[in-house]
Amino acid sequence: MVGATYALAHELYPYDPATARAGHHPVIIIGGGPVGVATGLDLAQKGTPALMLDDHEGVGQGSRAICFAKRTLEIADRLGAGADMVKKGIVWNVGRVFHGDGEVFNFNLLPEGGHKNPAFINLQQPYFEKFLIDALRRAEAGGKPIEIRGRNVVTGLTQDADKVTLDIDTPDGPYQLTADYVIACDGARSPTREMMGLSFDGRVFEDNFLIADVRMTADFPTERWFWFEPPLAEAPQSALLHKQPDDVWRIDFQLGWDIDRKAELEEGRIRQRIDEFLPAGTEYELVWTSIYTFQCRRMERFRHGRVLFAGDSAHQVSPFGARGANSGMQDADNLAWKLDLVLKGLAPDALLETYHEERAYGADENILNSTRATDFLTPKSEMSKIFRNAVLTLAKEHAFARPLVNSGRLSVPCSYDGLPLNGPDALDGPARTRPGSPCPDAPLAEGFLLDRLPGRFTLLTLGLQPPELLTDVPIGTLTLAGDDLTDELRARYLGDAEHALYLIRPDQHVAARWAEVNEAEIQAALKTAIGLT
Amino acid sequence: MTLNTQPNLRDPDDFYDELLAAHHGLSKDQSDALNARLILVLANHIGDREVLRAALKAAAG
Ligand SMILES: Cc1cc2nc3c(=O)[nH]c(=O)nc-3n(C[C@H](O)[C@H](O)[C@H](O)COP(=O)(O)OP(=O)(O)OC[C@H]3O[C@@H](n4cnc5c(N)ncnc54)[C@H](O)[C@@H]3O)c2cc1C
Q1: What is residue A2's predicted lDDT score, i.e. its pLDDT?
Q2: What is the rounded distance in angstroms from the CA atom of residue A446 to the CA atom of residue A116?
Q3: Cβ B36–A386 below 8 Å, yes or no?
Q4: Distance (Å, rounded) from C-alpha A409 to C-alpha B23?
Q5: Which of A2, A49, A237, A314 is most deeply buried (CB count within 10 A of its CB)?
């Protein structure tokens, strides 16, 4: 039996010998991390059975992700876990940037009003994962076809024209499973990728980051503090202080490339750094420490026959900008409905290719953003450092330089501009709701728009009567008029238009939009949106 | 807008003088930093990305 590779924060799916039985499943998901569980939940909610296999028995210790973006919370909401996350999480809006011993400037994210969810929350990843597993248990109890097997290590994979065969190791020895499709959500080191001999190319940043989560009841405000060249004796190149729930603070020190990793991880050494960093006499407890190096890379293709890759297994970014888990959740959101329709025979296999197209497009955008942030944090040449520091110096006095300061551009979902599933844009409407875009939330007379767009196609009409459509693909309607047409909804979906009809995908991205109702065009756009053209 | 590469400075000798004077007495590091700040200030003033791209090209020779 392959041994456990990390200690658990929460034991959530203990090994159960009774379940480790050979059989065939429509979908098997390798990995019970945030992306695997989200994908499984989404599939099961749609009625497609999902079996998740994880090599551990719960959620690993140690906070990796802490910043979760609004789009992630919206997806989690649809999956039944969003409310728990927002309740436990910490909302923050103010950030401060320091250079040397002085503050350069501060900013307020000033989140736009009229959204159910905050722009960002800070929450330890183990909580995030636990809330997803709680939702999974509720779905299971409600009769949804979902199952997770702990201590089921996938050790081999082969595929032929009509199935994938997996070798699985358990404390009671090996067994085999087959599946129509396999989703590899097994993380950045993806054993699946290894087993299939697939490459994972990109850039390694020659830098080490010491991450220390400390518990203290200090009186810092709930803000994100970021230092370039902090005034410390053995100066790290940057430092970050950010609050999490349970009085825990994330401290990050950028240590550079040539370090003695082992020495830097000694508690005495870490305390020495933190003591110098925090106000004198601050008492704290070390909750978690580790040293990371970061890379930006992605697989060339996210789909290989019947095996699809999602989350960190498919793409990896440096954490500046919080685009790892946040983008993985969008993979789940994108893949689940497509796989569901294909398995039900309602959409062609070609729809799965668009998973690769759309999410590789998203991954490239994320990699670009996080690479730029990393280049600002770790200037790669003498001249890039001169420019970086010039920006910081100017930012103190001059507003124009502040947008150039890049300590991570916070994650926003991408719009699938120009990609094949988009239909017509026959509305002179706001750019932010053009086809391909994720639907922005908006308040209705009661409640919020996104809560009314469940995981299926929806015809959303504003000030129009929807047509009666006969379709094979399940489609709902949402007819808004009168008090529901709030100012925010109008600004986001109508602009200057009087009325509109939107075709919205199950992942809440706009497929097409029109100023008038035209049944034939809607039918055609629906076909386009499921890969039939 | 296009990049103007025709003479556009009134009293060029005077400007040149001012540019050098700004660097007077600075170390190499300080001068490099000043140049970088100057480029950023000017780039923001120009604002037009097309013009800036043309300027980068013209400067690269
Ligand atoms: C320091 C740090 C800070 C970060 N901060 C942020 C942030 O603020 N915001 C953000 O969005 N992201 C952040 N990230 C990234 C985030 O942690 C990852 O993107 C996220 O965990 C990816 O989820 P995943 O489900 O794809 O993979 P993982 O979380 O890695 O899960 C993979 C799962 O597969 C299991 N597995 C592996 N091999 C097998 C096998 N053979 N058989 C069965 N199971 C297997 C693993 O045990 C694990 O449970 C950060 C990362 C780091 C390191």
Answers
A1: 67
A2: 11
A3: yes
A4: 35
A5: A314
Range A8-85+122-202+296-368 classified under CATH 3.40.50.460: no
Statement: residue A265 has pLDDT above 80? yes
pLDDT of residue A1: 66
Q: Which of A394, A396, A405 to mutate to test the interface with B (most CBs of B within 10 A)?
A: A394
Q: Give the pLDDT band of residue A7 (cuts 50, 70, 90).
A: confident
Compare A111 and A117 and report the one with higher pLDDT: A117
In 10 A of CB A301, how many CB atoms? 14
Task: Look up the pTM and report it.
Answer: 0.95
Taking CA atoms, B41 is separated from A404, A429, B52, in Å, by: 12, 36, 12
What angle in degrees, to the nearest 10, is found between the helix axes of A324-343 and A70-78?
Answer: 40
Pick the CATH number of A425-529 from 3.40.50.970, 3.40.30.120, 3.40.50.720, 3.40.50.880: 3.40.30.120
Rounded to 5 degrees, what are φ and ψ at A286? -80, 120
Cα angle A94, A99, A104 (rounded to 5 degrees) comes to 50
Backbone angles phi, psi at A123, to 5 degrees: -155, 135
ipTM surpassing 0.90: yes
Write phi, then psi, for A363 (nearest 5 degrees): -65, -40
Three-state DSSP class for residue A262: helix
